[in-house]
Amino acid sequence: MAEWGFITNHGLALAAVARHPRSTAREIGDAVGITERAAHKIINDLEAEGYITKAKVGRQNHYRIHSAMPLREEASDAAVGELLVMLGWKRRKRRAKGTAAKEGKDHS
User: Residue 2: inside a domain, yes or no?
Assistant: First the structure.
């Protein structure tokens, strides 16, 4: 009997990106259990549909999740961020620009 799961590789890749936004495609593939090539395709799919934004920083890609995007399933009106929270994602709180500088703190 073939193994199966409730979450697709796209959902698992998105969860891997949410946990580690600076991961390489190989690391994302390893986390999901797919090839690096398949991970690249999924990353491109997620970016094309607006679920993530990819930014080049030096030689690495950094990903940003757009958690307010609705899930593609018609049976749900949930946002992708809600699914990610269920999968263990801890949403980072965003600070207003300049807040860290005003407080004299460095939050890298």
Answer: no
